[in-house]
Amino acid sequence: MPETNHQPIAQMAHHLNRRFIALVPILLAIMVAISGLTMIYPLVHRVWLGEHLNWFDQASWREIIDMIGLIELPRVFVGMCLLMMSMGLAMRARLAWAFSLVVFVPALLVTIYSDWGITSIKIVYDLVVVAMLIWYWSVFNRSSLTAGTLFAVASVISLLWYSMLGSLYLGEEFAPPIKDMPNAMYFSVVAMSTVGFGDIVPVTHPARLFVVSIIVMGITVFATSLGAIVGPIASGKLRQMLRHKARKSMRKNHVILCGTTPLAISLFRSLTERGELVTVVLRPGTKHDYPDTADIVFGDAFGAETLKEAGVEEASHVMALRADDPDNAFIVLAVKSFPNSKARTIVLVNNSENLEKIRRVNADVVFSPELLSAELLARAISGESMDKSLISDLFFAKPIDADGTVQTQTN
Fold this sequence. Notes:
Elements lengths: L1 H47 L3 H4 L5 H8 L3 H19 L3 H19 L6 H17 L9 H25 L4 E2 L5 H12 L8 E2 L2 H46 L4 E4 L3 H12 L4 E5 L12 E4 L5 H6 L7 E4 L4 H12 L7 E5 L6 H5 L5 E3 L1 H14 L5 H8 E2 L14
Parallel strand pairs: 3-4, 3-6, 4-5, 6-7, 7-8
Antiparallel strand pairs: 1-2, 8-9
């Protein structure tokens, strides 16, 4: 008795755990977004109070940056990166997870060197978020093009941000001096792309080292960003090609199933549970309930090219199980047009009035659920006996010969 009481509790606990795991990406995305917002808040608060009105009264960009605070600008950028990565985490993207962990390193360093009233609380909070990201690493298992794009955008913007601020801060150490935003952006893009026109050159050692850092990071950022975007596309296409090739090579002695009727879906499940290889043929754009792992060929089921792609010459059975009886008849005729095919054809008759017509296509098995169910119910009500031979005769209405006589045995 106690064991039966424990079983529902264990099932409920398992269900609650699965629900919690499903919510983990959203929870961590919110936590990372909160961390990003706290990084941005101090500067936004200062702007809200009107301090920014005095910043641009300074004589040079160096004085403006010093007045804003050299630590504020990287803090805002790190916060923006965390906000962008939170969107990727919500989509369970592995790249967003990895980049979030990387961004939390400068986030912690900036927080440590900041003079906040909540510095210690922020450090503890960020460490908790990092610990949770590491603990639930297996949840973020998707290769997302969106996350790759976010990573690329964040990387390029961060390098541009760094290049422009450095160019403006060290502006007097270049020839000619960099004194405005357009020139800073121009020089940054030229240096990041390693073009190097030579119209603006560094003249001091700090400026030269700064340019070297832009060039090195530019090569790294553009290479990784390109890989982050192209990688998921290329891997997805490659995976699709390999899967298609593997499925095509396995299409031997298999069953070809045409249709999306409830009978077809149920038969697919029964056959796959028994270890049979099944290839499904569907019209393009057809909505279906087959699993994502099903081997599906989209095309005209009574078209030679589609049947050939489905491996009709190597198939053991072809089942025409569509809801339209003429379509099923045409599928059988199309299969019989392949002289090298030894596949047995099974055709579904949805309307018993079409039974005699569909028999004339000479399918190996003509299956009429309508006649089967009616005869079984009638015999059950009248008390007549039912044996295996009777059910076989009812379940599979036999095809007829060219002279119109019903065959006594199926082929």
